[in-house]
Amino acid sequence: MLIVANWKAYVEDLARAKKLVALGKKLARADKVSVVLAPPAPLLSVLSIGRKTGVAFAAQDISATAGGAYTGEGTAQAFAAAGATYALVGHSERRAAGDTDAVVAEKLARALAQDLVPVLCVGEKERDGEGRYLARIREEIVTALEPLELRERARVIIAYEPLWAIGKDASAAISANDLAEMTLYIRKVLAELLSGRNAGRTTVLYGGAVEPENIRGLAADAGVDGFLIGHASADPAVFAAFAKNLAA
Ligand code: 13P
What we know:
Strand order of the largest sheet: 1-2-3-4-5-6-7-8
Strand content: 15-25%
Order of helices and strands: EHEHEHEHHEHHEHEHEHH
Bound molecules: 1,3-dihydroxyacetonephosphate
């Protein structure tokens, strides 16, 4: 199982960041668990994890530009130099700040060009009765992956994060049944974009109100390969409980 911890802007000091890194290493000692931590960029650049810990770093976002006269931008290459090996791309909070599907596609290409494993975030704002939300998910995946070569498409991790669940507590998370349905749908869309043996191998994550109390139920019944966790990954006391609950 892959656990990606998106600290967002919840974590602002080095002491807490270091505590979370230590907890990430502990979590990665659980059977079949790998951990990716996504700290705010300035903290990422001063943290280290050491080798063979089962823990890696991700950028929370990368620039759509390559290097140049772009004040304030953090390029994929700069993140790679700081120790990131993954990059979140198209998170709904970045889309809300202006990232269109076209910008997301550019960022995906930048990440791949620097050998960062992209975690492409997709998700609907709300669910309607007619299934329009499914069309939106398809559109987000297709516009991002279609411009890529087949072997690049196979490197992308998909994180399904419905906006209506993000930031809420466990009771607001998607049900395991609905998630299982969505996972199947995402894999069907991927099968159209990937060739033979790669279809079906893509890592699919779920994010949105994942907390220590609901992770096991979602992990058991929903067909996902792991989770993208926000608020519950940024509080050391809560993050520690994931290790306990997954080991239990
Ligand atoms: P929460 O876990 O806080 O709902 O956030 C999910 C998310 O946006 C992770 O990227």
